[in-house]
């Protein structure tokens, strides 16, 4: 299984070399928690979770139980076509759930695993700015998966690369991941 710690270490080094001095992380649940919490620990700052759900996610989760019957090259092609079609970007609605308390954060890094269309991160930043328009916000992800998202990260490990993370439902390590990290990610 890909070592999440190794990806977090790489992202940490990139952030440190930028001289940006954050005082808080807002990670996008669920996958962003796996990166945001250990990153906050390395930076010795606090982290908060925010939920940003788009419609259609439930259908994807329902269909996911059938993915194990489809050959991996076909799944990868479907993933590629989904990203190329900008399907996620067409659905711009996101349901943001956050306690609206930034706990005094003034220099924030918004963390997620990946930026596809960029719509989710964009909506999260808009929500944070609606709470406090004076905050400075940077974005950190492991990867961007498309060439032209609507918003670009400030810190990233990979660019224009589809990563098959262990928490991806179609990952060969998904069941191991669920055993280790629990039902929260299912």
For this entry, give a set of tags.
6 strands; alpha/beta; 7 helices; Rossmann fold; 186 residues; globular
Task: Describe this structure in a few short sentences.
With 186 residues, the chain is α/β, with parallel strands linked by helices.
Reconstruct the topology from this structure.
Blueprint (H helix, E strand, L loop, with lengths): L3 H15 L5 E6 L1 H13 L2 E8 L3 H8 L7 H14 L1 H4 L4 E3 L9 E9 L3 H13 L4 E9 L10 E4 L15 H8 L5
Parallel strand pairs: 1-2, 1-4, 4-5, 5-6
Antiparallel strand pairs: 2-3
Helix pairs in contact: 1-2
CATH architectural grouping: 3-Layer(aba) Sandwich
Rounded average pLDDT: 82
Strand content: 15-25%
Structural class: alpha/beta
Global Rg: 16 Å
- Helices and strands, in order, run as HEHEHHHEEHEEH
Question: What kind of sheet is the major sheet?
Answer: 6 strands, mixed
Helix content: 40-55%
Instruction: Describe the global form.
Output: globular
Strand order of the largest sheet: 3-2-1-4-5-6
